């Protein structure tokens, strides 16, 4: 698709379906003729709208357009990005062809600091020579992924989606109502991918159910050069009741500043109190710094009850794909978007066939759960065991001092699969963990947490 067509969606013929704000009843959208799932579409390709232009939506749109689907990518604000720590796993660089110049920092050292300020170096010995944690800015990554989706043929629509008309029959299209510069428009499509974040409108319209959300709050702070040098390749994680009752706080390096933040599920109303707590903990390291941006955002704590309904699928934060314990979501957002897009391409035979709910569940949802449900459950278990009290957090930091634990953690995080370790070392790790918990006198109280 030519660049001029991509940049000016108003010239697209489908925008003849617009509804003028002053006379909303004069124009109605042209309905598509839709056959049953598995039947050939006559004279056109399958039309899919992706709502949300972050890593999930952009990856879905790229996969759809590359596979022959007529693709529309809605993003209400292309100049902003979700507040985010910005760490991605190493495997994502190759898997998603992320250019190296987008990476701000190569983190090769991490410190985990306990409530009593016991610090453990995490990675200085256990990372291999070629390994690191890439740190980047979401505004940079999101823009790159959207542009790549456009290059693959997706049409970017810089518009706010206001309403979805759900089909009353299987043969009717979904109608997307959206607004561009206070002008109301509509678009008829065969299927929708909801990639519009934790407060997903798509999820609301398809009655996908609610989930528990944490809130993440962070400040971007520009430091003097000598203090920024300390965080050149270092990220810090802090645990303790003073910084979060059920999560952790962080200092992550960016291109020319650091992100200092925290998160919580159970005490959202006190998030600013915990933010003051982390800033007090790192006071000597950030003195003289200047706050250049303040950000807050909800983070889902578990998958939604419904992730596919009809010809609509949810991906990324909209689906609830953020891991417990670490709060990681960038990779899983991009991965779920790509998997969903590729699933639609397969089920529709490259856009030639109509798809249905069963296709989305079989090709996307079942494949996602088979690949990642164990990872999500395991990290949920770790959070319940180690984040519940200060004594548990002390045990967590003690366990993290074990080099084998560090190696297994990095293998799982950097390459996004549960690492297979040495059985004898695994047994020693289990007994070491139990020993740490016993020293903290919490085993009895936390045993129920091991029931998945």
TrEMBL record:
<dbReference type="InterPro" id="IPR010253">
    <property type="entry name" value="BchP_ChlP_pln/prok"/>
</dbReference>
<dbReference type="Pfam" id="PF22578">
    <property type="entry name" value="GGR_cat"/>
</dbReference>
<protein>
    <recommendedName>
        <fullName>Geranylgeranyl diphosphate reductase, chloroplastic</fullName>
        <ecNumber>1.3.1.83</ecNumber>
    </recommendedName>
</protein>
<keyword id="KW-0560">Oxidoreductase</keyword>
<dbReference type="InterPro" id="IPR011777">
    <property type="entry name" value="Geranylgeranyl_Rdtase_fam"/>
</dbReference>
<comment type="function">
    <text>Catalyzes the reduction of geranylgeranyl diphosphate to phytyl diphosphate, providing phytol for both tocopherol and chlorophyll synthesis.</text>
</comment>
<comment type="similarity">
    <text>Belongs to the geranylgeranyl reductase family. ChlP subfamily.</text>
</comment>
<keyword id="KW-0149">Chlorophyll biosynthesis</keyword>
<dbReference type="InterPro" id="IPR054715">
    <property type="entry name" value="GGR_cat"/>
</dbReference>
<dbReference type="GO" id="GO:0009535">
    <property type="term" value="C:chloroplast thylakoid membrane"/>
</dbReference>
<dbReference type="GO" id="GO:0015995">
    <property type="term" value="P:chlorophyll biosynthetic process"/>
</dbReference>
<keyword id="KW-0521">NADP</keyword>
<dbReference type="InterPro" id="IPR002938">
    <property type="entry name" value="FAD-bd"/>
</dbReference>
<dbReference type="InterPro" id="IPR011774">
    <property type="entry name" value="Geranylgeranyl_Rdtase_pln/cyn"/>
</dbReference>
<feature type="domain" description="FAD-binding">
    <location>
        <begin position="46"/>
        <end position="81"/>
    </location>
</feature>
<keyword id="KW-0602">Photosynthesis</keyword>
<dbReference type="InterPro" id="IPR050407">
    <property type="entry name" value="Geranylgeranyl_reductase"/>
</dbReference>
<comment type="pathway">
    <text>Cofactor biosynthesis; tocopherol biosynthesis.</text>
</comment>
<dbReference type="Pfam" id="PF01494">
    <property type="entry name" value="FAD_binding_3"/>
</dbReference>
<dbReference type="GO" id="GO:0045550">
    <property type="term" value="F:geranylgeranyl reductase activity"/>
</dbReference>
<dbReference type="GO" id="GO:0015979">
    <property type="term" value="P:photosynthesis"/>
</dbReference>
<comment type="pathway">
    <text>Porphyrin-containing compound metabolism; chlorophyll biosynthesis.</text>
</comment>
<dbReference type="GO" id="GO:0102067">
    <property type="term" value="F:geranylgeranyl diphosphate reductase activity"/>
</dbReference>
<feature type="domain" description="Digeranylgeranylglycerophospholipid reductase catalytic">
    <location>
        <begin position="227"/>
        <end position="292"/>
    </location>
</feature>
<dbReference type="InterPro" id="IPR036188">
    <property type="entry name" value="FAD/NAD-bd_sf"/>
</dbReference>
<dbReference type="GO" id="GO:0071949">
    <property type="term" value="F:FAD binding"/>
</dbReference>
């Amino acid at each position: 698709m030519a660049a001029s067509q991509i940049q000016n969606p108003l010239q697209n013929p489908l925008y003849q379906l617009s509804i003028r704000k002053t006379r909303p009843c004069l124009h109605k959208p042209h309905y598509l003729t839709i056959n049953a799932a598995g039947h050939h579409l006559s004279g056109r390709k399958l039309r899919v709208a992706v709502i949300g232009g972050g890593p999930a939506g952009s990856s879905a749109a790229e996969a759809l357009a590359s596979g022959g689907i007529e693709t529309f990518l809605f993003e209400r604000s292309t100049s902003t990005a979700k507040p985010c720590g910005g760490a991605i796993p190493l495997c994502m660089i190759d898997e998603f062809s992320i250019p190296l110049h987008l990476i701000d920092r190569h983190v090769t050292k991490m410190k985990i600091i306990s409530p009593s300020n016991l610090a453990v170096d995490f990675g200085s010995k256990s990372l291999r020579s070629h390994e690191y944690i890439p740190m980047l800015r979401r505004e940079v990554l999101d823009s790159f992924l959207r542009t790549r989706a456009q290059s693959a043929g997706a049409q970017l629509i810089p518009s706010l989606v206001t309403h979805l008309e759900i089909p009353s029959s299987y043969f009717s299209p979904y109608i997307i109502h959206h607004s561009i510069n206070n002008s109301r428009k509509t678009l008829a499509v065969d299927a929708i991918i909801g990639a519009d974040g934790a407060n997903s409108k798509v999820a609301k319209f398809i009655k996908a159910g609610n989930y528990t959300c944490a809130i993440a709050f962070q400040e971007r702070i520009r430091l003097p050069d000598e203090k920024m040098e300390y965080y050149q390749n270092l990220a810090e994680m802090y645990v303790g009741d003073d910084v979060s009752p059920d999560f952790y706080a962080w200092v992550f390096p960016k291109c020319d500043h650091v992100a200092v933040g925290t998160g919580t599920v159970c005490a959202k109303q006190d998030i600013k109190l915990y933010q003051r707590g982390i800033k007090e903990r790192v006071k000597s390291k950030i003195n003289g710094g200047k706050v250049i941006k303040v950000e807050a955002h909800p983070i889902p704590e578990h998958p939604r009850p419904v992730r596919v309904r009809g010809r609509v699928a949810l991906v990324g934060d909209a689906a609830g794909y953020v891991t417990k314990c670490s709060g990681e979501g960038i990779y899983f957002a991009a991965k779920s978007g790509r998997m969903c897009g590729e699933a639609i391409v397969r089920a529709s035979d490259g856009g030639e066939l109509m798809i249905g709910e069963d296709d989305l569940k079989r090709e996307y949802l079942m494949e996602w759960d088979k690949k990642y449900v164990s990872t999500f459950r395991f990290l949920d278990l770790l959070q319940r065991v180690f984040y519940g009290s200060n004594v548990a957090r002390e045990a967590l930091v003690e366990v993290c001092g074990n080099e084998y634990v560090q190696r297994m953690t990095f293998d799982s995080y950097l390459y996004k699969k549960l690492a297979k370790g040495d059985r004898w070392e695994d047994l020693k790790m289990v007994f070491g963990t139990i020993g740490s918990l016993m020293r903290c006198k919490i085993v009895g109280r936390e045993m129920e947490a091991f029931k998945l």
